TrEMBL record, chain A:
<dbReference type="GO" id="GO:0048038">
    <property type="term" value="F:quinone binding"/>
</dbReference>
<dbReference type="GO" id="GO:0018189">
    <property type="term" value="P:pyrroloquinoline quinone biosynthetic process"/>
</dbReference>
<comment type="subunit">
    <text>Monomer. Interacts with PqqE.</text>
</comment>
<dbReference type="InterPro" id="IPR041881">
    <property type="entry name" value="PqqD_sf"/>
</dbReference>
<protein>
    <submittedName>
        <fullName>Pyrroloquinoline quinone biosynthesis protein D</fullName>
    </submittedName>
</protein>
<dbReference type="InterPro" id="IPR022479">
    <property type="entry name" value="PqqD_bac"/>
</dbReference>
<dbReference type="InterPro" id="IPR008792">
    <property type="entry name" value="PQQD"/>
</dbReference>
<keyword id="KW-0884">PQQ biosynthesis</keyword>
<comment type="pathway">
    <text>Cofactor biosynthesis; pyrroloquinoline quinone biosynthesis.</text>
</comment>
UniProtKB/TrEMBL annotation, chain B:
<dbReference type="InterPro" id="IPR007197">
    <property type="entry name" value="rSAM"/>
</dbReference>
<keyword id="KW-0884">PQQ biosynthesis</keyword>
<comment type="function">
    <text>Catalyzes the cross-linking of a glutamate residue and a tyrosine residue in the PqqA protein as part of the biosynthesis of pyrroloquinoline quinone (PQQ).</text>
</comment>
<feature type="binding site">
    <location>
        <position position="16"/>
    </location>
    <ligand>
        <name>[4Fe-4S] cluster</name>
    </ligand>
</feature>
<keyword id="KW-0560">Oxidoreductase</keyword>
<dbReference type="GO" id="GO:0018189">
    <property type="term" value="P:pyrroloquinoline quinone biosynthetic process"/>
</dbReference>
<feature type="binding site">
    <location>
        <position position="20"/>
    </location>
    <ligand>
        <name>[4Fe-4S] cluster</name>
    </ligand>
</feature>
<comment type="similarity">
    <text>Belongs to the radical SAM superfamily. PqqE family.</text>
</comment>
<dbReference type="GO" id="GO:0005506">
    <property type="term" value="F:iron ion binding"/>
</dbReference>
Amino acid sequence: MTSLDSVPRVRRGVRCTYDKTRDSDVVLFPEGVLLLNETAAAVVSRCDGAASIGDIALALADEFEGVQPDDVIEVVDRLVARRVVDVD
Amino acid sequence: MTEAPLGLLAELTHRCPLHCPYCSNPIELVQRADELDTATWQRVFDEGRELGVLQVHLSGGEPLARPDLPQLLAHASGLGCYTNLVTSGLGLTAERLADLVERGLDHVQLSVQDSDPGNANLIAGVKGYDRKLAAAALIKDAELPLTVNAVLHKANLDNIGGIIELAERMGADRLELANTQYYGWALRNRAALLPTREQLAAAGPVVQQAKQRLDGRMEIVYVVADYHEANPKPCMYGWGARQLTVAPNGDVLPCPAASVITTLPVQNVRRSSLAEIWYDSETFNAYRGTEWMREPCRSCPRKEIDFGGCRCQAFQLTGDAAATDPVCTLSPDHGLVQDILGAEIIPVRPELAMRRSV
Ligand SMILES: C[S@@+](CC[C@H](N)C(=O)[O-])C[C@H]1O[C@@H](n2cnc3c(N)ncnc32)[C@H](O)[C@@H]1O
Ligand code: SF4
Ligand code: SF4
């Protein structure tokens, strides 16, 4: 189960980039491509294997108004399901 | 509205040192003299990226047979595309791999024929087993993510447990266990390759247990044997929806098997741009979406799930690419598949016809 203490890390072989054709942040990985909204992109960029979900939520609260810790958990869960992120 | 493609499968060459009788490459292989040159492939990647392609799969044949592979890979990677090398592993050396990594290689998909070395070499038609182990070790040393792909059929399905262990030993992050799809050489060899119901029934639980045992360590993707199923396999994510294939001679296809549909005009990068082909060609528009469908697909709740099955298979088995895939039990042509299973899964099977060299 992911919780505020979980530490997410972008999996090996996953690359984040910006796609001008779609005007969107994207993650590229062996199985496919995922288009990210701004919040999700901000979460992915902080999944460094050091910051916990709680840390990430705190950092994002400064940047994006109204982002709740539960939103971050939800984004991470979705990224785990797509094998973009691992959680310790 | 038609969306931009995400993936481009670049079949750089049909040349290959192996002779897999299950190979999905067409019987009429593209000759070396007809292959696109370096500059044309690079233009194709430019056009692909411009169109929206974010993933380039470098495949074949054996992509390592192209001496310009490093330049092609560097070009695709330089455009910002994720690069995946789809290889038999034969021809991979530490030097070549280091060079490819340097130029931006993101992922490798390595195919294996079997866990039993003797049988693997028989299926490949060359002594490749040890070289594949060596290739896997190189890929792991380079810290690249690795997918192992094993095509399953009558001659190796009983070893599925061993194949899973082989992939573990190779350090795979993912394992694709793909029952043979009957195109190209595999279609020619169908009567020798079709597994029995008993084989498939025995394989199922082995895969399930391994999935549980390896959860979180190695992802296992099992592709079912569609002739034995009640529902057809989906046509990718739909015809002309997410990916395009460029054959060694520059022919552009909605999927790697689509050259079998002889009723559609052939598109080629030497004559048209990828954007024209993707958005405007008759070939790519023919089976887009669901409008082209007839009954029973038209009113079926599964039509957005499987898109009526495989157009190539429909054409191969019925002569009509717009027909419901005969694998579907609702298809009026489903008897064709039942007849094939009855006539071809018999005690004495034909010899395997090994894939020719180009
Ligand atoms: C045609 S091969 C070309 C690349 C390389 N020569 C290799 O075998 O890995 C591309 C991928 O398709 C798989 N493949 C080949 N024939 C197939 C078939 N009839 N059904 C399903 N997969 C197949 C191979 O195992 C490989 O992973
Ligand atoms: S499937 Fe076998 S014969 Fe076909 S291209 Fe790959 S290695 Fe060569
Ligand atoms: S009728 Fe068509 S859409 Fe429905 S399951 Fe069969 S192939 Fe798929």
